[in-house]
Amino acid sequence: MPRFSGLLLLAFVAGCAQPPPGAPAAPAEGGDADPLARLPATFENMPSCPVCLKVTLTLRPDGSYAVRERLASSEFYDFGRWQASRVEGLLFLEGGRFETLRYLLQPPDVLDAQEGVQGGDLKRRSDVEKLRGPFRLTGLYDGTSFKHCLTGLAWPVDDSQAGGGLKREYLKTEAGMAGKPALVAIDARFDEEGTAREEVHIQRIPAILPGTACPGPG
Fold first, then answer.
1. What is the pLDDT at residue 180?
2. I need a labelling partner for 47 at 20 to 30 A (CA). Which of 74, 80, 122, 125 fits?
3. What is the pTM of this model?
């Protein structure tokens, strides 16, 4: 009889230790089990030598990403969109400088570089680096704002000398005179200083391209 009572007691304690149905799972040891939790987030690799490729990637919550590649004393920037497949456990980066890149999501904080991706694996940093560019962007300009073709995001254009030059040239075009957006290619940085929201700061004289719509895929 004492043995039977002991078994009942163990069963009762084990039942109390189980979470109720529908309760959230306990977080993995060391933090969130999802590398994409709490965006924005910055990831970077660990180069094996001082002049080897250094990759810094910042994922933004609006579905866009910014990346800086540093090789020796040269820096290259790209801006694009990211998508995650929970079924495959993969992160896809689609930008303007390279083919779509794939990373395997490795909880809790690693992006495992897949075949063809340079720089190797990326590990999440404890801080967020706001990469500002300059980026080469193609999109639609309507005289006051710029809409990026790849991500669909839009920003006001600053009133700098280059920004003012773009507006003057735009107003001379057929699209500008008709009040329609024009397709443009710009080299720009993102700037938040002294503004209520992020805006595009044009670095160089932009190019106005033929067309009033973004090109289709392919």
1. 94
2. 80
3. 0.79
Question: Could you tell me which of 57, 43, 46, 39 has the C-alpha nearest to residue 124?
Answer: 43
* Tokens encoding 186: 């710009």
Gap between the Cα atoms of 152 and 62, Å rounded: 10
Buried b (16+ CB within 10 A) or exposed e, 56-90: bbbbbeeebbbbbbbeeeeeebbbbbbebeeeeeb
- Consecutive sets of 10 residues in the chain, 218 residues long: mean pLDDT of each? 41 36 33 83 95 96 96 93 95 89 96 95 96 93 96 92 92 94 94 74 90 80
Rounded to the nearest 5 degrees, what angle is found at the Cα of 143, between the Cα atoms of 150 and 173?
A: 95
Is 138:79 a contact under the CB 8 Å cutoff?
no
Kind and range of the H or E run holding 6: helix 2-17
Q: For residue 26, report the phi and psi dihedrals to the nearest 5 degrees.
A: -65, 140
* Integer Cα distance of 170 and 181 in angstroms: 9
Contact of 166 with 175, CB cutoff 8 Å: no
Return the amino acid letter for 39: L
